[in-house]
């Protein structure tokens, strides 16, 4: 594993000894990325079958952001800020949207979204909702015909088993797929409201609307995680659960699960070292 940066840089989150570290993850075409409050680690399987692992402490740590308006965008920026470092330390890593068909779908989706938003036969809310669905289509294509869904399942199994201290299934209650329904609704509503802004302010209104929609979705998702048995939470989570079960995840092979567990172990090791450095300093 690559040598990590100094864990004393930047604000760190102190995790009590009896509390599980809150982890997130991302599946790659040939591996798994796991990230915690202070660090990340990625494990991949090369074309030659070699298992490679790299990780380091984060430069951007979104857990320090407490504002409800900013913490959703900050967490998204936190996750995507890792990707250039992954490519630098693991050049063999293949990101989810690297396949040519998916890139083509992204271009086609952008053209279709532009056409829908220019339509006058639909209401503003219907235009925004349809545009949101079209924008999500490349992600669905990325999961078809590749190992991405299996690595996604491996990511969920490894993190879920760690969190619950028992073997878990490939669906996970905190998967980002559960945000799809709330995000489509908030984005459509925010986008429709932005169309009411004066023409010279519309671009800024759209940008503000999307930031607001992301912030609202993050808060809704957080409430869903804290209240999983609430009837509203169950309804909101159902589309994401079905998406996970039917499309977004697949049963991993033992070799793929080994990759996910290697990423998990490396990330936990960095988190414990950061926590130990914090305890020693205090």
List keywords for this structure.
282 residues, 8 helices, 4 strands, 8% strand
Question: Could you describe the 3D structure shown?
Answer:
With 282 residues, this protein is of the alpha+beta class. Helix content is 58%, strand content 8%. It contains eight helices and four strands. Strands 1-2-3-4 form a four-stranded antiparallel beta sheet, with helices on both faces.
Tell me the series of helices and strands, N- to C-terminal: EEEEHHHHHHHH
- Class by helix and strand content? alpha+beta
Instruction: Kindly report the average pLDDT value.
Output: 79
Dominant shape: globular
Major sheet summary line: 4 strands, antiparallel
* Helix content class: 55-70%
DSSP strand tally = 4
* Sheet with most strands: strand arrangement: 1-2-3-4
- Beta-strand portion reads 5-15%
Distance between the termini: 28 Å
Rg, nearest Å:
20 Å
Tally of contiguous helical segments: 8
* Poorly predicted ranges: 6-10
């Amino acid at each position: 594993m690559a040598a990590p940066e100094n864990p004393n840089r930047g604000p760190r989150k102190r995790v009590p000894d009896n509390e599980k570290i809150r982890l997130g993850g991302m599946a790659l075409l040939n591996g798994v990325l796991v990230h915690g409050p202070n660090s990340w680690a990625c494990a991949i399987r090369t074309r030659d079958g070699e298992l490679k692992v790299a990780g380091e402490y984060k430069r951007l740590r979104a857990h320090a952001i407490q504002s409800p308006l900013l913490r959703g965008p900050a967490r998204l920026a936190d996750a995507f800020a890792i990707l250039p470092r992954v490519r630098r330390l693991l050049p063999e890593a293949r990101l989810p949207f690297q396949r040519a068909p998916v890139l083509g779908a992204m271009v086609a989706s952008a053209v279709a979204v532009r056409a829908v938003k220019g339509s006058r036969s639909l209401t503003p809310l219907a235009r925004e909702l349809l545009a949101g669905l079209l924008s999500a289509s490349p992600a669905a294509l990325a999961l078809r015909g590749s190992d991405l869904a299996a690595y996604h399942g491996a990511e969920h199994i490894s993190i879920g088993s760690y969190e619950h201290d028992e073997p878990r299934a490939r669906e996970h209650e905190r998967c980002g797929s559960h945000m799809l329904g709330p995000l489509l609704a908030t984005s459509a509503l925010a986008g429709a409201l932005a169309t009411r802004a004066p023409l010279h302010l519309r671009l800024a209104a759209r940008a503000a609307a999307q930031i607001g929609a992301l912030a609202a979705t993050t808060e809704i998702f957080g409430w869903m995680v804290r209240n999983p048995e609430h009837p509203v939470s169950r309804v909101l989570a159902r589309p994401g659960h079905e998406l996970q079960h039917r499309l977004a995840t697949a049963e991993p092979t033992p070799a793929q699960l080994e990759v996910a567990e290697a990423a998990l172990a490396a990330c936990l090791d960095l988190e414990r070292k950061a926590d130990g450095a914090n305890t020693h300093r205090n």
